[in-house]
Amino acid sequence: MTAPTLVDFDDVVDRYDPTLGLEVHVELSTNTKMFCGCPTTFGAEPNTQVCPTCLGLPGSLPVVNRAAVEAAIRIGLALNCSIAPWGRFARKNYFYPDMPKNFQTSQYDEPIAVDGHLDVTLEDGTSVRVEIERAHMEEDTGKSLHVGGATGRIHGAEYSLLDYNRAGVPLIEIVTKMIPGTGARAPEVARAYVTALRDLIRSLGVSDVRMDQGSMRCDVNLSLSPKGSGILGTRSETKNVNSLRSVERAVRYEMSRHAGVLDAGEKVVQETRHFQEDTATTRSGRIKETSEDYRYFPEPDLVPIAPSAEWVEELRGTLPELPWERRARIQQEWQLSDAELRDLVNADALDLVAATVDAGAPSGDARSWWVSYLSQQANTRGVALDALPITPAQLARVIELVTTGELNNKLARQVVDGVLEGEGEPDEVVASRGLAVVSDDGALIAAVDEALAAQPDVAEKIRGGKVAAAGAIVGAVMKATKGQADAKRVRELIIERCGA
Amino acid sequence: MSDDLTRLSAAELAEKIHVREVSAVEAAQAHLDRIAAVDGDVHAFLHVGAEAALASATLVDESLAAGTAPASALAGVPLALKDVLTTTDMPTTVGSKILEGWRPPYDATVTSKLRAAGITILGKTNMDEFAMGSSTEYSAYGPTRNPWDLDRIPGGSGGGSAAALAAFEAPLAIGTDTGGSIRQPAAMTGTVGVKPTYGGVSRYGLVACASSLDQAGPCARTVLDAALLHEIIGGHDPMDSTSIDAPVPAVVEAARLGAKGDLSGVRVGVVRELTGEGYQAGVQENFDAALRELEKLGAEVVEVSAPHFQYGLAAYYLILPSEVSSNLARFDAMRYGLRVDKGASAEEVMAATREAGFGPEVKRRIILGTYALSSGYYDAYYGQAQKVRTLIGRDFAAAFAQADVLVSPTAPTTAFPIGDKVDDPLAMYLNDLATIPTNLAGTAAMSVPSGVAAEDGLPTGLQIMAPALGEAVMYRVGAAYEAARDAADGSPFASRTPEVKP
Ligand SMILES: [Zn+2]
């Protein structure tokens, strides 16, 4: 297969209009699976979280997990959807070894939530409304591990191992309507949407939404039409997009690839493609000779889901403050400019700062620590900010020590470094590294007197009322105390000793 | 002594066990001996679990000896379990090669209830593969023979359970009824078979044929025995979403009331579309005689019409295969059951296994159902069939406004010779003409012996149909008719069963 011709991105958006569509699967963090009582813990030994139902054993039957329905309704409500008063599950029939029944139980054409929207803010503050077509419930499949063979794919593998722990874990699939008119910002809109959806679902507490662990997975649909033509092009569906950055890159790559195909006068193939994390490209999935016919029909083993209006309203009452509401409140409470808020959000620091504030720190201090010093540390270490080994409570304690004068800023950074190095709680680091500010006036007075004696001309100026000259003496004292003195107190003592 | 025990009804046997005149172990052993003697000819059982049966019976005896009240009205009574319900201590094959030797890791809810009730499970009975068939000839393990005439079929799919009763190998059995698989074998073997209201008995652990039609139910030689068993296996099960969350109808009380012989005030509807043309003469004669008997008991007999029943068979043969095609997809050699290691890929192994593991009738229905659900055909086939289903439900509702129960012959003919229809699926399907509407509507029905046909001496059945959860009146009518019939004959119907002769 020849490498696709890629068109330069700027050139693509000069001549084509992209249309986006995003399908996001979210694994719910319910205690039990969608249709049985098995636990859903991630990372357990293979095939230890299974039972007759999720193994699809003959005779077994599904029972709908009420907590999953509840989570689905809450997601639907948070996305401004209408909740269907009645709906059936359907069977999606196809053979695959990681699917125990060889059909997937899914809501298909009677989804629990329809017709909503999510407002998404881009980096520069532009707001884009993404229309939601539907959110529906379904069950996850198991996992296959293909062993032997070069690619880790089923073809060429010597044998395959199957783990059914994930089979039957509840999924919510959230599907957008087509998103037109994003132009050059299509990649950014896609990423911002997935980010906003992740934050929203996290705030509902119904999923870990960890893309790296697969509890949130994104399929990107993209098509191009000649600029201004309004003719919808053929779309590709890219699966396996497993990070926010990849969402952006997948859209960008597919736009360049589609343009290359269209420029060559060829037709875009309607197909499923797989995103390649290492190269930021997509590759074609297996082309099927016949189009897949899933032979959907209503699941006869389940009764329809019919949430009462009262229940839906009760659930609406349980919705927490949603991310955009929270951001508005925080902006006001902390008196942030739009730019400051955006920096905070873009640095993924909002939750951390808020938690630090909750632990007793002033918002300004908390913000400055997370956005500057700690962001640098995260960068250096190549980890996400929230993966740094320091908790908001620990940082709040450091800030408290500064406020009470027990630490100055320089020492505080050393304490934070100690915590990051795993040396224990801030107070333990202070003790073990001997970082407390010298607050014993006796020791300081001795150091001040020594410095004044060493620079008699400066001492004279101060005594003559030139208080500004004290800076040189402060510097000398700080040097002598290895930075552990409280500079403000030192200045006071200098003036006192000089009788100025 | 041993031989006598096999001739008793379940209620009589339970009585003797509970007053400790007979031990549960003796009862079990008597039936195991009977199985050893006749099952070589009848082939009702696919598996006999003698050891487990005797162990279970021993527990009942120990408990009674300790002065504990019996776990249920049928504690200690032996039972034959259709091989479609899962059992941890016995294989569950569903009459198919694809599950040969499969030992389920869990008990069906019905199995658990039987165990909790202290009932002795003797073994698993033969059936048409995956319950698809009306003669038990489609079992992958060979046909069951009708104890009335070993050259004839015992009906199906539950021919094993019905034959076990008629051959006195067990006084109780469990069947499952998707389109008549309990009632038609009951009619063919001169026994009693009940299809409860859909959702009345848990389907958890019942290996699915067609999920929206399957229903497990009691089989026995008397109406009272069926009622006693019905109350034990019925009731809501949180493991089955389609199970009804309502008390089990008081069928034992109803059967006892019926046996007193008074049906005054009960309206019995004769379904015009389920009599006459196409019914064997002796079947029709016995049906007419049964109607006269019901009138004598004080029932008011009226004629009702169910115009859409004529489309029932066609709708059934679209809905059932559709569900079958999906339900049977799981038999893919990946996790359990047969595996034919032919070919390098998972797909090739799946295909080879399904080719070798499924019999012709099962394949026929999988293909039919796959086709009926295919895009472009769904509305014309599955969609239309569902509409017919709705119309049949309305026919029933209208009929039950005029009558408390409806009656018809259970099957159009008596038992036919083995091999007669095995190559003619359409002729085979016609057997279930009268029983299918009940499954499509999710209502209840039973078959009670209505004598033997004059022309061939083989048993016929009276079908009594009731509305959903209306089993009480159905049992009352069944028990009243049974008592009157026995009084007229001078002995219980079962005593007329000929001795099994090879
Ligand atoms: Zn499970």
TrEMBL record, chain A:
Q: What is its EC number?
A: 6.3.5.-
Arranged from A to Z, the UniProt key words for this protein are: ATP-binding, Ligase, Nucleotide-binding, Protein biosynthesis, Transferase
Name the enzyme's class. ligase
Residues annotated as domain Asn/Gln amidotransferase: 351-498
* GO terms of molecular function: asparaginyl-tRNA synthase (glutamine-hydrolyzing) activity; ATP binding; glutaminyl-tRNA synthase (glutamine-hydrolyzing) activity; transferase activity
| Biological processes, Gene Ontology terms | glutaminyl-tRNAGln biosynthesis via transamidation; translation
Q: Which domain of life is it from?
A: Bacteria
Which ranges of the sequence are coiled-coil? none
Which stretch is the leader sequence?
none
Write down the InterPro entries for this protein, in alphabetical order. Answer: Asn/Gln-tRNA_amidoTrfase_suB/E (IPR017959), Asn/Gln-tRNA_Trfase_suB/E_cat (IPR006075), Asn/Gln_amidotransferase (IPR018027), Asn/Gln_tRNA_amidoTrase-B-like (IPR003789), GatB (IPR004413), GatB_Yqey_C_2 (IPR023168), Gln_synth/guanido_kin_cat_dom (IPR014746)
Q: What does this protein do?
A: Allows the formation of correctly charged Asn-tRNA(Asn) or Gln-tRNA(Gln) through the transamidation of misacylated Asp-tRNA(Asn) or Glu-tRNA(Gln) in organisms which lack either or both of asparaginyl-tRNA or glutaminyl-tRNA synthetases. The reaction takes place in the presence of glutamine and ATP through an activated phospho-Asp-tRNA(Asn) or phospho-Glu-tRNA(Gln).
Q: How does it assemble?
A: Heterotrimer of A, B and C subunits.
- Report the HAMAP family cross-referenced here: GatB (MF_00121)
Q: What is this protein called?
A: Aspartyl/glutamyl-tRNA(Asn/Gln) amidotransferase subunit B
- Annotated organism of origin: Pseudonocardia sulfidoxydans NBRC 16205
UniProt lists the gene as: gatB
Automatic annotation (TrEMBL), chain B:
Listed Pfam families = Amidase
Q: Which residues form the signal peptide?
A: none
Segments forming a coiled coil? none
Please list the reactions this protein catalyses.
L-glutamyl-tRNA(Gln) + L-glutamine + ATP + H2O = L-glutaminyl-tRNA(Gln) + L-glutamate + ADP + phosphate + H(+)
Taxonomy, superkingdom: Bacteria
The Amidase domain covers which part of the protein? 27-472
Which EC numbers characterise this protein's activity in its record? 6.3.5.7
| Transmembrane helix as UniProt keyword | no
Provide the active-site residues from the annotation: 82 (charge relay system), 157 (charge relay system), 181 (acyl-ester intermediate)
| Keywords annotated in UniProt | ATP-binding, Ligase, Nucleotide-binding, Protein biosynthesis, Transferase
Q: Which Gene3D superfamilies match?
A: Amidase signature (AS) domain
Question: Which PROSITE patterns does the entry link to?
Answer: AMIDASES
Q: Which GO terms describe its biological process?
A: translation
**Top EC class, one word:** ligase
Query: Might you report a single GO cellular component term?
Result: glutamyl-tRNA(Gln) amidotransferase complex
Q: Which GO terms describe its molecular function?
A: ATP binding; glutaminyl-tRNA synthase (glutamine-hydrolyzing) activity; transferase activity
Q: What the protein does?
A: Allows the formation of correctly charged Gln-tRNA(Gln) through the transamidation of misacylated Glu-tRNA(Gln) in organisms which lack glutaminyl-tRNA synthetase. The reaction takes place in the presence of glutamine and ATP through an activated gamma-phospho-Glu-tRNA(Gln).
Q: Which family does it belong to?
A: Belongs to the amidase family. GatA subfamily.
Oligomeric and partner information? Heterotrimer of A, B and C subunits.
Record's protein name: Glutamyl-tRNA(Gln) amidotransferase subunit A
**Could you tell me which species this protein originates from?**
Pseudonocardia sulfidoxydans NBRC 16205
Q: Which gene encodes it?
A: gatA
